[in-house]
């Protein structure tokens, strides 16, 4: 029985210049055929007993789920209702873009039991939004938060980005001011990573992407943490901040290395010691389902060593860190026996602390997380 369920909707009405997710431009795509295939995949998963009494969390991501029309969203939710038991469900989330989350879609999401919205705002600077290739403006984000509240949503989160091309620290401060003025219970903020096969990557290779330097980016991260703390919004993961009771249960399942099922093109899953991913291209995904097979493209049996590595580098992303007790219960070994050398070295470098039965990043380590995580990878 899986703890989480991720459902992928790979359609977008615009393609952002930094995005390397599995997505396609909406126009001329077989959207309804895809939704039929997705419904069939969920049915196969249910037949195979993957859901049992149902997942603890459902997360619909993309792409952009709100790129779907109201009718298409209804079809998606009908498929979920048919195949996914909700006996254990404690969190039902959907990603959304500000300019697509219309009042009728909000009403439908509410009616279908969605309780949490994760809205891709990214910035409150008009020029930076254009540069990212986003189609919404700053006012759309403010409007959609008002509309979501009017529709009865309380559990709202927005995503922000920093370290953007040409972004100044003053622009970032302004975005933080406007984001915090919304008084939301949850914020995610990620530094830009320029991924291959994106517009930004090509521009970078031509020296046409004026990224802020590492020091400026670190200053932006510091400002983010300070402003969240001043507002009483606690950092619980490197890039995630929430008031009490509003941490993302679904995302915590990933960092706690728990099981999750993935449905939809390019979705990933993890259960019974096996990580798998579905076919990414829509045609391959839909063909597999049409042939009566689950559209799994590749599987990987996770060795006990890999599982312990994952426990460390995923768990250390959380500010609470890794519990020595949990590690012992899960693996029958002491974390100090397996990783004593790495932990001692990182403690000497001031990047990790091991106290009260927990191993966690120090304040300095939070800035150098990737360096820490790499030490646990064999
Ligand atoms: S960032 Fe989101 S909206 Fe933009 S192209 Fe990627 S998936 Fe689509």
From TrEMBL:
Highest taxon above the source species: Bacteria
Entry annotated with the keyword Iron: yes
Any one GO MF annotation of this record: 4 iron, 4 sulfur cluster binding
Short name of one Pfam family: HemN_C
Record bears the keyword Chaperone: yes
Signal sequence, start to end: none
Record-annotated Radical SAM core domain positions: 1-234
PROSITE patterns hit by this protein: RADICAL_SAM
Subcellular locations according to the entry: Cytoplasm
Protein family per UniProt: Belongs to the anaerobic coproporphyrinogen-III oxidase family. HemW subfamily.
Protein name, entry field: Heme chaperone HemW
Taxonomic source organism: Edaphobacillus lindanitolerans
Lineage: Bacteria, Bacillati, Bacillota, Bacilli, Bacillales
